[in-house]
Amino acid sequence: MKIRKMMTGTEKSLPAVPEFDRRMSREEINDLPLQRWEGPIQVISEHDDVTRAIERLQAEPVLGFDTETRPAFKKGQSYPPALLQLATAEEVFLFQLTPLGLPEGLRAVFTNPAIIKTGVSLAYDLRELNKVSPFDGQGFVDLAHEAKQLGIQNHGLRGLCAVLLGFRISKSSQTSNWSKKNLTPAQMKYAATDAWVGRELYSRFQTLKNQ
User: What's the alpha-carbon Rg for the chain, to the nearest Å?
Assistant: First the structure.
C-alpha cells in the first residue's frame, strides 16, 4: 500500500539545512535531557468508548501516529499490532486493538485526507494495520521522508527528536508485551510519547519549510 503524502500546491524542492548535514551519534543523543508526554492519556479498550474518542480526533487537523506490536523472539513468529496511538494537541489516545480490532471510526480517520497523520516508518505500520482491516490510507506524512527532503541525516524518531527538538526520548519499553490487557504506567507513557513527538516534529518541519 502506498503512503499518500499531502501536497499543498505550493510545495517546492527543499535545500539541505547545513546544521543537519551530519548524523548525530548515539552518544550525543544520550547526552540530551530526557522528555516524555506529561498530559492526559486515554486508554480505549471498549467499543462504547471508541465513538467519543473518534469525535475528538476528527476535529483535529494533525494527529501524531504510531503503533506498538508484541515482540516476537522466535524465528517465523509474528503478531498483529496490539496498540494504536493518536495524539492531539491536548491528549493522547491509546487504542487496544486486541479487543477492538480496527473500528470503522478509526478507518474513517485514516482515509480522511484532511486529517494529517504523522509519524516515522509509516509503510510498515499501515501494512500491518491493513491486515487487521483493509483501508485506503490518505493524509499520512512520514517524518523520515521529510527529514531526507531537508538533508537531515537522522531519520528515526529518537534521532529526529534530538536533532530538531533538542531532547531524547526513552526506548526502554519498546520490547515489552503490548498485547496484555492492563498496560503499565511506563508502557502508557512510552506509547503516548512516541505519538506526541510525531506531532511536535511535524510542526517543526512546517516551520523549517516556511523559513
Answer: 17
Q: Find out whether 126 and 99 touch, Cβ atoms under 8 Å.
A: no
Domain 20-209 matching CATH 3.40.1440.60: the answer reads no
Q: How many helices (H) and strands (E) does the chain have?
A: 8, 6
Report the mean per-residue pLDDT for the chain.
Answer: 88
**Which one-letter amino acid corresponds to residue 46?**
E
Q: How confident is the model at residue 19 (pLDDT cuts 50, 70, 90)?
A: low
Query: DSSP assignment of 106-136, as one string?
Result: HHHHHT-TTSEEEESSHHHHHHHHHHHS---
The residue extents of the domains of the chain are 20-209
Q: In what order do the strands lie in the sheet with 41-44?
A: 41-44, 92-96, 81-87, 62-69, 116-119, 140-142
The model carries a pTM of: 0.88
Please give the grid coordinates belonging to residue 192. 503516548
